[in-house]
Amino acid sequence: MTYTPDYAKGQVLVLFINPGTDRGFAEKFGKGLGYELSKEEYAHSNAPHFIYLTPEGEEQAAIDNFLNYAAFVESAELRDIKLEKRWESMGRLEELIGDYTEAAESDENYGKLLEEIHSSSEKLFSEFNSGAG
How far is CA 98 from CA 9, 59, 101, 121, in A? Predict the structure, then answer.
C-alpha cells in the first residue's frame, strides 16, 4: 500500500531560506503576495516554516507565487496533515521511550513503562486502522 497524503485545504507551507526569519517578516512577506499568515505555529521543524491561508482550490497558485521569490523562499508546498499527525504520534512514543533513563531502577517501573508504550502503540495502531493516521 502506498502513502496517500491528506492535504489541508486552503493552506500552504512555506520554508524561508534565512533561518532567522521571524513571524513579523513572514506576515509582511505573505501580505505582500496577498496571503494571510496563519495564527497556527508550525511545530514540526526547527527551520523557519510558516503556514499561509489561501482560498481553497488556489493552493498550487499560491505555491507558485511564493516560489517566484527564490531569494527568500527555499520551498513552498501543500501542507500534509496526515504526515504531521504521524510525526506527532511517533514523537509521543519517543518521549515515552526516552523518559525511561533509569532502566535498572526496578522491575515494577520498567513494567509500567512497557505498559504505557504498549497502550500508546495500540491506540496509535487503532487510529491508523480507522483512517485517522
Answer: 35, 38, 7, 15
Residues 52 and 116 sit within 8 Å (Cβ to Cβ): no
Q: Any residues with CB less than 8 A from the CB of 3 and at least 6 apart, and which? A: none
State pLDDT tens for residues 36-73: 999 998 877 778 899 999 999 999 999 999 999 999 99
Any bridge partners for residue 49, and if so which? 15
Residue type, 107: D
DSSP state, 104? T
**Which CATH number is associated with domain 8-79?**
3.30.70.80
| Per-residue model confidence as pLDDT tens digits over 9-21 | 999 999 999 999 9
Residue 73 in contact with residue 17, Cβ under 8 Å?
yes
Q: Which residue has the cell 500508546?
A: 120
CA 3 to chain CA mean position, Å: 16
Cell numbers that stand for 80 in this block: 500534509
C-alpha grid cell, residue 46? 526547527
List helix spans (H) across the chain.
23-33, 59-67, 81-99, 107-129
